[in-house]
Each structure stands twice: as C-alpha cells, then as structure tokens.
Amino acid sequence: MIFSSAKIQTTGTKRRGSLGQILLLAAGFLVLVGISALSVILVDRAREDNDWVVHTVEVENQISTLRLRIRTTESAARGYLLTDEQRFLDEYLAAAANVRSDIDKLIQLSGDNRVQIANASELRTPVEARLDEFAKAIGFAQRHDTAGGIELLRSSDSGRATERINDVASRMRAEEERLFAQRTQTADRTERFASIVTVAGSGLVVLLACISIFLVRRSIRARDQAEAQLRDANLNLEATVDERTADLREANNEIQRFAYIVSHDLRSPLVNIMGFTSELEELRNEIFKRIAALHAAASQNPALPAAARDTEPTLDAEDQQRLAYFSEALEFIKSSIAKMDRLISAILSLTREGRREFRPVRIDTRELIEAIVTTVAHQAAEGQAEIHIEPLPEITSDRLALEQIFSNLIDNALKYLKPGVPGKIFIRARTKLGYAIFEISDNGRGIDPKDHQRIFDLFRRAGPQDKPGQGIGLAHVRALVRRLGGTMSVTSELDQGSTFTVTLPINWNANRRNREP
Amino acid sequence: MSAAVTIIMIEDDEGHARLIERNIRRSGVNNEIVPFTSGTAALRYLFGNDGSGLERKGDALLILLDLNLPDMGGIEILQRVKENKHLKSTPVVVLTTTDDSQEIKRCYELGCNVYITKPVNYESFANAIRQLGLFFSVIQVPPAAT
User: Could you tell me the fold of the domain covering B6-138?
Assistant: First the structure.
C-alpha cells in the first residue's frame, strides 16, 4: 500500500513533466517556424530593398549614359563640321539615333518616381533643341557650307540648353542620390532586423532546449528513483508475501487444530446426551408399563381370572397421548443428535484429510476414473446414464485424493440428473502449461449461478433438497484440489447441466502449499 | 473374571462413567469398579504416594482408560503403567472418543491391550460395553507382579 501511493505520486510528476516537455517542444517548434517565416519575409524584403538600390544606380547610370551620348553626338557633329569626314557623320548618326531612346529608357527606369519622370521629361526639350542644332549644322556641312554650320553653332543658344541639361541631370542625380541613401538605409535596417530576429529566435530555441534538457534530466532522475523504489518494493513484496504465506499457513493449521479439537470434544457430551436419552427411553417404557399395570390393577376387578391379567395392560387415551408426546420429544432429541454427530464426523474427516500426508505417484487418470465408474455402474443404470470417458493424461499426484475428487464429482453428476431424462456424463481432459484440466460435464438439473459459490461451502447445498447428503462433498473436493496445488470451478445454468473443471499440476511440485511448517 | 479383579475406570466425564458402569453391570459383571475423574488421582491410586506401584502389589487390576483427561493425556498414564515393573502385566482397555489412527497406533505400540472408540450411537455404545463386559467375565488377569 505504501509503495503504491509513492508510485502514484511519481506517475503524477512524470505526467506533469512529460506534458511540460511536450509544451516546450511545441513552443520550440513554433519559434522555429516563426523565425523561418520571418526570415523568408525579411530576406524577400532585403532582396527588394537591394533591387531598389540597384535600380537607383541604374537610373544614375542611365543619366550618365544620356549625358555621354549627348556629348558624343555633339563631338561627332563637330568633328564632321571640322573635317567633313564620313566617319564622324556615321558616328553622329548612330549617337543621335540613340539619344531619344536613352531619354525614353530613363523615363521608363524612373517610372517609380514622379519627380524623376517630370525631370526626365523636362530633359526632352533642351535635348531636342540640341539635337536640332546638330542636325542643322550637319545639314550645313552636307551642303559643304562649313562656315555656315560653324556660324550656326556659334550663334545658337547652345549654352542655355546645355546648362539646362546639366541642371536637370544634376537635379536627377541629386534625387537619385537621396533615394540611394534612403534605400540603402532601408536595406540596412531590414538586414539588421533579420539578424536580430535570427539571433533572438536562436537564443529562444537554445533556451527552450536548455529547459527541456533540464526537464528530461529531472524526469530521468525521477524515473531512476521510481525504479529503485519499485525494486525495493518488489523485494519487500516478496518478503511480505512469504511472511503472509507463513502467517496464513499457521492460521490455517490453527483452524484445523481448532476444528479437530472442537469437533472431537463436542463428541464427548454428545455421547452422554445420546446415552442418557436412550436410558430415558428405557425408563419411559418401564414407567408407562407400570402406569398401565397400576391403572389396570386399580380399575379391574381383582377377581378376574389370571389369564386376563396376563394380557398386556393398555393405557387409557390420555396416557396414550402423554406417551406419544414423550416419544416424540425423545425422537427429536435423538434425530438431532444423530445429525449433529454426522456434522461433527464430517468436520473431523475434513480436518483429518487436511492433515493427511500425500503420497505422489504416477497415475493413469483414465484407468483411475474407469475404476470409479465401475463402482457407480449400478447408480448409472438406475439413472439411465451413460458415462463417456475420453482419453485422459497421466499425472503425478496422490491416488486417494484423486479418487475422492473424481468419485465425488461423478457421484454428484449421477445424483443430480434430471428425472426422466437419460443422463449423459462426459469426462474429458486437456493439458496446458504443465496443468491437466479435467472437465466433468453432465446434462443434469444444473446449478443456479447465484449458488456457484455456495455449493463449495461446507454444509451448504443448492437446488431442491430431494437427495440425501450433508453438503460436504464439494467442500471436501475443493479442499483436496487446493492441497494438490490445483484449482476448481463450475460453469452451469439451471436445467442446462453442469461442468466442473478441475485443474491439477501434471508433475508433482513439492510446493509450499503442502509443506507443513 | 475372578471376584478379586478390580476395574479401574479412568474417565473424566461422569456421564460416560455412569453409562459405562451401567452397561458393564448389565452384562453381568459385578466386579468392583473404582472410578477416577482425573489422571492425577488415578496415578496416585495405581502407583501409591511414592510412585513405585508397590502398594498395588498382588492386586488383580484391569484398567479402563479414556485418553482425553483434563490434567494429563491418557497416553501418559498408559505409558507409565506399561513401564512400571509391577503394573506392566495389567490389561489396559482404552475406551475413548479419539478415533485418530495415529493415536490408536501409538496406544498399541505402548502396550494397550484393547482400543475401543466410543460410538455416539448409544445402541452401539451399549453393545460395545456389554461385549466388553462379556470379555471381562472371561478374561484372565494376572495379579500385579511382586
């Protein structure tokens, strides 16, 4: 009892511990999932931020490209004007063709920013003006009016357009630089945030891992402790069982001694009661004979012939009645004594059985049961019963005990058949795990399940009490089976017959049960 | 049985003693019956105050013995009688309720001459005692050895 409560406590702690561990693991898993999700999001954001940074650089690059292109156009135009060489003309044409597309590309690139779109569009006018100038100058050159072309270039208001281009370009550049700084900062922040999240998450996971390691260690310790307790408990249990067994054996012996002495000593007064009752009976006969004689003497004429006096004197009705009462009382006393004597004898023989030493020998149970069946052949014929004996095993046991067990059971089967129904009694056996399991089944009147326990009790019987018996047989059989190291049970329903099952060890184990201390 | 033979009845139950005596008488045995209800008193009578048994020298005795006595076991009395050089030839009839085979065997081993279990059934009882009485009437009892 002590140990089981300790065990319950341990189990409680363990359950709580394991629940904690599961929660911790779940928390750790959730944190990991959270970190992963955040990381994915943050990495995505960082990529986007970087894209924007790259984009800014691209825009700046495009601005430079545009300016370079304008310069290239200008220098090619000038080169052509000066040298009139086809090479410059080709260069000019190629560059001029690209200037517009450069502007378009710039507008397209800076499409995310309205200021820059405005700026880029603003570039268009001065660039167009410049390109017009160049075209005109090239026109002069093609007409070989180089001087006119030069004059045109000189006279034209090229400074302002160039200034505007530069102005807008630098504005755009400034804007892009501002964006660059801003976007770099955003990217940095995102990255920092990502690393903080990672570090914090990792820390949290490590912390959870530490806690769960601690918990696991604690529960391992608890388990070790519980195991040690269990081991102790087992050892103690064995000792306790031994102790209890010894106690029980002693108690059993004491009960047997007690039953023996009591039943024995009860017999002594019974002899007296019976003896003096019989003496009283004798006296009764004499007294009533005398009363009759006196009565006769008083009422009869003494002058009657002697022959008449010799006849048995009779009692008058009143005295007849007294004699009947007297006799009845004595009969009750005697029948009660006889019954008590039978009960005492039964207890005596049971206790004597309980003290008898067994002599184990190898027994062919089929042979033994066939011999019993032969002895009850007469009863079987009376009850129109057939007894079928199936192949039965050989076991090592006490012959007398087995005879008593089986003859009691077969006797009962024959005794409690259904009247008018031919009896069928089967005796079969099987072996299992070193035990022989015998079954004696009949098609008799059966036993109400509520009486299944009762029938094994001393002096208790079940069903209609129409057969002679003391209620000793099954109590005796069960006691014997137990002493032989076996068990017995019954399965039965009213009117459905009964099956008594006797399980006996196949080999004689000089078990503790039989060792008297 | 010669008139000199004395029946020593050691029986603690007075009812039993009475029934035994009555039935012995009914069988026609008229010898003196000396009843004892305790082992101690019986031993004192048999062995005398000095315990030697010399006092009973020359007496022809027959002992009727119950085994269940309040102060000692009947077996002890039997043993002492059979060990005493003066009394050992005295016939001992054990008449008791004990029907334990071990006890019976032990009594015969110790030299008991007859062992009878008292039947509860009075007819059997009376019958047994009467038979015993008849037996007493023909039995030859030697006087206690000198």
Answer: Rossmann fold (3.40.50)
Residues of B whose CB is below 8 A from A272: 13, 15-16, 19
- Contact: B97, A264; criterion CB under 8 Å: yes
Note whether A272 contacts B15, CB cutoff 8 Å. yes
Q: Cβ B15–A276 below 8 Å, yes or no?
A: yes
By the CB < 8 Å criterion, does B55 face chain A?
A: no
What are the backbone dihedrals phi and psi of residue A387, each rounded to the nearest 5 degrees, phi first?
A: -115, 120
Q: What is the pTM of this model?
A: 0.51
Predicted confidence (pLDDT) per residue in B33-78, tens digit: 999 998 888 988 988 888 787 778 778 888 999 988 888 888 999 9
For residue range A215-253, what is the model confidence (pLDDT) as tens digits? 889 889 999 999 999 999 999 888 988 998 899 888 888
Neighboring chain A residues of B98 at a CB cutoff of 8 Å: 264
Q: Is the pLDDT of residue A516 over 50?
A: no
How near does any CA of chain B get to the CA of A362, in Å? 26
Side-chain half-sphere CA neighbours of A322 within 13 A: 12
Domain segments of chain A as ranges: 2-224, 251-351, 358-505
Complex ipTM value = 0.77
DSSP 8-state code for residue A432? E
Residue of A270, A279, A352 lying closest to B120 (CB–CB): A270
Place of tokens 């036993």: A447
Instruction: For chain A, say whether B130 makes contact (Cβ under 8 Å).
Output: no
CATH class in words for A358-505: alpha beta
Let me know: does B77 contact B112? Beta carbons within 8 Å. Answer: no
Q: A229: Cβ–Cβ under 8 A, 6 or more apart, which residues?
A: A3, A6, A7, A10
Inter-chain touch A278–B123, beta carbons under 8 Å: yes
Type of residue at B27? S
- A386-395 mean pLDDT: 90
Query: How close is the nearest chain B Cα to the Cα of A337, in Å?
Result: 9
